[in-house]
Amino acid sequence: MGEPTRLRHGRVVPQVESALRGMLAEGRWRAGERLPNEVAVAAELGVGRSSVREAVRLLAHDGLLDVRHGSGTYVAQVPAGPAGAGGVRQLLRRARLLEVYEVRRALEVEAARLAARRVRPEDVARLGAELGRRQEAAGGDPSAFVDADLAFHRTVVELSGNAVLLGLFTSVLPVLREALVEMVVHETALPDLSCAHTALLDALASGDPGAAIAATVENLESLMALVREEFEEEVR
């Protein structure tokens, strides 16, 4: 498969995806050609088979690869030009992320305001433990990080004491989780929002609804602005 590709330190799956995307762009394999198996690709890149499998899944989702169970992974037939299948799917993914975050913002801002008025000391301790688990998961497996992040935010919604808000948030969790995992995997310039999460915890602990709202808005708007900017650049 040629000279080994060196990966940098950091999240592995995005780098594997980027490396494979580069190999496809440079024409290492022709359309319809079968790729080497997971073992060979993992050996060349110096990563585990699970990372290769996840990267292949993402590229198949973007229409660049065709995974045929029992047969192997093949280079898909992609229309020429920037508006090919991969570009279209990326646009759709970012548009969907914006919609998900608009709903999330509406729910979580009100939940934070109510939680700041109703939270108890034992609730603050629980949130602190969940925030610690979120911080520990940062930079690791995307799914584990997203699960820890959503556990923290779901608890905030729960502490609002509003059963309707909690029901709405719980109902969108599956879609939100899928969108967030894709965001963590695909977006390479995600801001570090640890401070915003800490600020939210501090606001809840001090019973300050205004500060809780501000921290929630900072958290969600930072990511929305990033995705919106990249989406608008691609549709120009």
Number of helices: 9
Along the chain, the helix and strand elements come as HHHEEHHHHHH
Total number of domains: 2
**What level of helicity do the residues show?**
over 70%
Largest beta-sheet characterization: 2 strands, antiparallel
- How much beta, percentage-wise? under 5%
Strand order of the largest sheet: 1-2
Mean pLDDT: 83
Question: Over all CA atoms, what is the radius of gyration?
Answer: 20 Å
Number of strands: 2
Supply the CATH superfamily name of the largest domain.
GntR ligand-binding domain-like
Amino-to-carboxy terminus distance? 37 Å
What would you call the structural class? mainly alpha
Which shape, going by the Cα principal axes?
elongated
**What's the CATH topology name of the largest domain?**
Four Helix Bundle (Hemerythrin (Met), subunit A)
CATH architecture of the largest domain: Up-down Bundle
Low-confidence stretches: 79-86
Q: What is the class of the largest domain in the CATH system?
A: Mainly Alpha
Written description of the protein model:
By secondary structure, the chain is mainly alpha-helical. The protein has two domains: about 10-75, Arc Repressor Mutant, subunit A (Orthogonal Bundle); about 85-235, Four Helix Bundle (Hemerythrin (Met), subunit A) (Up-down Bundle), CATH 1.20.120.530. Helices cover about 70% and strands about 5% of the residues. It has nine helices and two strands. The protein has helices at about 10-25, 40-45, 50-60, 85-120, 120-135, 140-160, 165-185, 195-205, 210-235, and strands at about 65-70, 70-75. Strands 1-2 form a two-stranded antiparallel ribbon. β1 (about 65-70) and β2 (about 70-75) form a beta hairpin. α1 (about 10-25) packs across α3 (about 50-60), α4 runs antiparallel to α7 (about 165-185) and α5 (about 120-135) packs antiparallel against α8 (about 195-205). The protein is elongated, with a radius of gyration of 20 Å.
